[in-house]
Amino acid sequence: MTLAVEPATNPELDFPGRRRFARRVSVMFLLLGLILSTIAVQVYRAVGDFVDAARWVNHSLGVRQEITLTLGSLHSAEASQRAYFISGNVQRLGDYTATAPQIAAHAAKLAELVADDPEQLGAAKELAALLETRIESIQESLALYERGGIEAVRAAIPVGRTRAEDSSIDNIGQRMLRHEDRLQAIRESRITHQALLTRALTVGASILSVLILGVALYLVLREQRHRTASMREARLANRKLLQSLADAQRMGHSLRELANLGEMLQACRDVKEAATGLRISLPRLLPGSSGSVHLINASQTLAQTVAHWGETDDESSDIVSLDDCWALRRGHAYPLSGTTPAFVCRHLLASKAAHPARDHLCVPMIAQGEMLGVISVTSEQEIHGTERSNIIAACEAISMALANLRLQETLRFQSLRDPLTGLFNRRYLEASFEREIQRAERRGIPLSVLMLDIDHFKRFNDSFGHEAGDALLASFGALLGRILRKEDISCRYGGEEFTVVMPEVDTALARIRAEEICAAVRAMDVSYRNLSLGKVTISIGVASYGEHGLTPDELLRNADNALYLAKKGGRDQVVIAEVLRPAPGVSEVDAAARDETGKSP
Prior knowledge:
By secondary structure, this protein is an alpha+beta fold.
């Protein structure tokens, strides 16, 4: 009888509405679990794609860098060879001997990097073969030079052949760079598509999840008198679900900000521009934190702040010694994850004393085996898990970008400057002279050009040696850098001949500035190996836009004619070009009147 009555003591167990309620709630949470699983899978795939994309970006940067280093090594070797031919300086031959083996090493490393790409591998092998042929050509020219001098080289090796070899090498390098750019564009497009899909799925699933939670909550409230225990479990599940969604959203936000940071840094032109972007991007990537980015100076003695965000202590210094930071000493993040630091970096002592509850993390910036600086982060919360991973990932992206920017700045300087005098080279003059003339014509402002030549330069070489001549050229280049305006364009035109383009300077003012240069040169005291080279003078020819020509060629030709007249008239003087026509007799200059260097006497 007891068994027959027991079901009646709890009639709610057989109530159809209760069973429907249980089924509905079960179905809703099952659907919610399916949605969350889908989000988790998609986020996991997105993270994998982003990590893979970052790896390929680093690979592409490595390939591009190796291509640039290969071509740069060749150009450096060629420059050393030409410098040796021109100056006869054995040190230049030593520079070539030291640089030449690097070409094959870079070419081999480039082939290793592109081994997974048949097209790039074929181009790398072709490039290696051309580089080997070019090195053999250089070796041949050196052998000819040792036997018969520069004339033997010119007679045996046509200039067109070397130009064709260099052009073929540069074309292959550019083709490989373009190929890497195409691969990078394809990968970025794929990641963008994946990010958009992930964002749409996350937003849609979140909205659907909220709707399901609302219905479930309504049913639970209606049944709360009978299912108090179920209500507590539902609230607990709800909190866990919201936490999971918040974590997923924070992860998605961090990934988007990290991708934006990488794209922004890749598009920067210099370190200053990158520092400005970091001040904006890092607070978004690391919300609720403060910190600074320090870069090590060229002498590897100090690290200087280039960017900071959040709250900064008044006592914090913008200059940090390398020994003050444990991360720079040890070469990895400090403190280690999950540990309590035994020491505090000295540059953070003031912050730690003022805010003892704050957590600190220093991450060194290392790229291509070189220590670039350190990122220091301070937070009111403990820095661990996702926050620590975001900081380290941001540091790696910043390190690669800064290393690339420094390499670009180095290559840009080498392509525009004369290594001996530090002045612009002839290539830069040809590129900028036309622009300055167009600006003068558009704005109606004057422009003048000076052609300068060191008097009796051959005598200095014959009396003191070519190294003393190089010292004289370097001193003269430094003199021009000091006394000319920053907007003036001073270039080494060739040998001991120099060109200065002076925007917004008419003929009268150009003569005054030229006389000042002559006076400054007379006052020069150049010594080589504790031996004074004696009195130095220069001759200067002046031509102005409009009066003496309308094109770069006309102005340079008339300024050179005026320089010839200054030489012919006794040197150490300034001569203005004749108006609207070249100086008489200059076009028929007898070849015998020019010295062995090919310059005007």
